[in-house]
Design brief:
Layout: H1 3-12, H2 27-38, H3 43-46, H4 51-72, H5 77-96, H6 102-114, H7 118-133, H8 141-163, H9 168-188, H10 190-195, H11 203-208, H12 216-219, H13 225-248, H14 252-275, H15 288-300
Helix pairs in contact: 2-4, 2-6, 4-6, 4-7, 4-8, 5-6, 5-7, 7-8, 8-9, 9-13, 9-14, 13-14, 14-15
Length: about 300
């Protein structure tokens, strides 16, 4: 058994420190959703949570994957619109107390326990609709920020509530960390998004470096791309710094998962900068041993 495997076994079997440990009927669905989260960058951060909150995060992650798969799938745009409308109806059923889908059934208890807002779920769906209805190409900074607000910040607001933090500082964590993560994802996924004819690099930054086209394949081949990406990376780093300040203003035990996520994604951003922007197909990942070190440093220190 490797060090990583031992850590996973230890932390996955850690008992909940809150009252009412163990699965409830509503959480049986969340247990079935764990495999979808297991391969994500957020997985180990989730393990730092007590059982009930952890299951809520599995369910939230699965909801995001469901709607993201629709937006990124091969279905016609008209069908994607219908499928996302179905999810809006399912969220309405969730808040009416009669969810039908396994994901929303798993979310039912979390909605009541942690005060999760219906508007945040709908905002996530609206963000996916932005991808589903058209290929986003060189959005303005205003449009890009709206996209980040919907697909990342709304997820952050739901997450910090599940973590147990409802203060203004917690809201700032969601706002800043959500934007930082999404900008990092954009820089990581340039080639993959380009194959879908999508280009999320902001128009103003492209034009500042003499790039006025919006066709992904052409833009990604430009020598000035590196300068554009470094500017976007600076935007992301500014949000990481603001998120770190907001996390420091919250109770440490509640914000351990956010601190781990920040550390892992900040490391990813730095690896992207180190790799550069000439070989976009070259994958950039944080090795498991390094993620473990970040979890131990930012998540378990001072427990």
């Amino acid at each position: 058994m490797t060090t990583v495997e031992r850590f996973d076994k230890l932390i996955l079997e850690r008992p909940d420190s809150s009252a009412g440990v163990g699965p409830s009927d509503n959480q049986d669905n969340a247990i079935a959703l764990r495999p979808r989260a297991a391969g994500s960058s957020f997985f180990w951060a989730m393990q730092l949570l007590p059982y009930q909150r952890r299951e809520a995060m599995y369910a939230l992650y699965s909801f995001c994957r469901e709607v993201d798969d629709i937006a990124d799938g091969d279905a016609p745009r008209s069908l994607k619109d219908v499928l996302l409308s179905d999810w809006r109806s399912e969220i309405a059923l969730l808040y009416a107390g009669s969810p039908q889908h396994e994901v929303t059934r798993a979310l039912k208890e979390a909605v009541h326990l942690y005060g999760l807002e219906c508007s945040d779920f709908l905002a996530i769906i609206d963000g996916m609709a932005m991808d589903a209805r058209t290929d986003i190409r060189a959005p303005t900074l205003v449009d890009l920020d709206l996209y980040c607000e919907r697909v990342a910040v709304a997820v952050g607001r739901l997450s910090v509530r599940i973590f147990g933090e409802e203060s203004p500082a917690g809201e700032r964590v969601a706002a800043e960390l959500g934007r930082a993560l999404q900008l990092t994802n954009i820089l990581r996924d340039l080639a993959e998004d380009g194959r879908r004819h999508r280009l999320y690099l902001p128009r103003e930054v492209l034009q500042a470096h003499g790039i006025f086209a919006t066709t992904a394949s052409w833009v990604l081949a430009q020598p000035a791309l590196a300068d554009v990406c470094r500017d976007v990376a600076r935007l992301a780093e500014g949000h990481f710094a603001a998120a770190a300040e907001a996390i420091a203003a919250c109770p440490r035990h509640k914000m351990r998962p956010a601190a781990v996520i920040l550390a892992v994604y900040r490391a990813l951003l730095r690896e992207l900068l180190a790799r550069g922007w000439r070989h976009l197909e070259e994958p950039v990942r944080i090795p498991a041993w390094r993620k473990l070190a970040l979890v131990l440093h930012h998540g378990l220190a001072g427990r």
